[in-house]
Prior knowledge:
five-stranded mixed β-sheet, alpha+beta, 2 domains, eight-stranded mixed β-sheet
Amino acid sequence: MIKPSIPSGSRDFSSEEVYKRQYIFNIIRGVFERYGYLPIETPTMENLETLEGKYGEEGDRLLFRILNSGDFKKDISASEFDESSANQLISKVSAKGLRYDLTIPFARFVVMHQNEITFPFKRYQIQPVYRADRPQRGRYREFYQCDADVIGSDSLVNEMELIRIFDEVFLLLGIAVTIKLNNRKILSGMAASINASDKFSDITIAVDKLDKIGIQGVRQQLITGGLSESQIHVIEKFFSLKDESEQMLHDAKSLLINSETGQKGIAELKEILQLLKITGITKASVEVDFTLARGLDYYTGAIMEVKSNDVKMGSIGGGGRYDDLTGVFGLKGVSGVGISFGADRIYDVMEELKLFPIGTQAGTKILFIHFNEASLNYSLPLLQKVRAEGISAEIYPSSEKIKKQLKYADEKRILFVVLVGEDEMKTGKLTLKNMQTGAQESLTIEEIVQKVKVVASKMFKI
């Protein structure tokens, strides 16, 4: 007999957990749509040529590759199978992979549907993504991303609005956050200033791990990447800038005086901060942080990351500007910017802080309890009448003892039960019991409908 199990890094979700996740998704979706973003969906599988080479060397290692259908070895000779390296074999036996994120599939979608969409194109997606990562708290192999991107515009108004979306969503969820900002042009200028432009990817990948491996770990990775002590010293000096955002940008401007690219990155951050000052931030703290790198290769401009102020965990949101991402698929010169919410980490934060409202769990509001065939038959039309009013309701399927039926309602956290016995059938006044307070009253079905709507509307969306 096989012991039931699921792959490491994946999870089952109970009904209660699904309702809580839907609560998060619904809030995020509502804010996305309020800002004019339209929903799309893309396949779980993409061609590997779509995915490979877009996330950097480390990202490529975390791609889940799918073996070709049928006999995937049929076109490989025995000698090739024995002598080929793992990477060579993969290219011969696998042509598809699970999506690593939603941004690259979005770029592919834009190119394929460019004649059907209106630019600037604002879209959102809420779908699972897959990474062959080492599972740990807050890090899974299958997890949901909630993305919003606008493509076909290089206006920094888009960055400002995406930061405001972060602010509004986390305000509605009750999570206190800090939104960190940087610009890849600033990092590029810093790399150029130490004659290490060819090491730019190595630098950003190392710095992106600062929270995980600490400054000494970053230093060692930079040494391994071929940087000298003098180069590392400049990098550490740059990253040690800590002050108010405007002062940090002023200090960085002095350090990057000879870098046109770096100066442009500083100017962009200044403009974004100015736009935010005009429109206002509701709750979140917004800070410039030059150690923010976002290790993905496709970022080219402003980058952002969101951290919970009250729970020690990795980022719960992030994003940035990417120029010409669609160019790899044949549509040149189209700039875009986007953000992503890490729904699974957000869930963990809300659980730890007990932020889910009491009414998060939807489900059945009324259970009809009956005692025999006559009361069952009497209840069935009433059950349908309640459902027709938009109230979720069910009937216990058999005439069991009342204690057993009440236990069922209690374990399912059903808000009310309606007891239908001989007296109720004679008078038309049904016994309504509030399962939270234990209070009982005799009401007509019309009165029950109104009563349940009033009480449940305070806790649930019916």
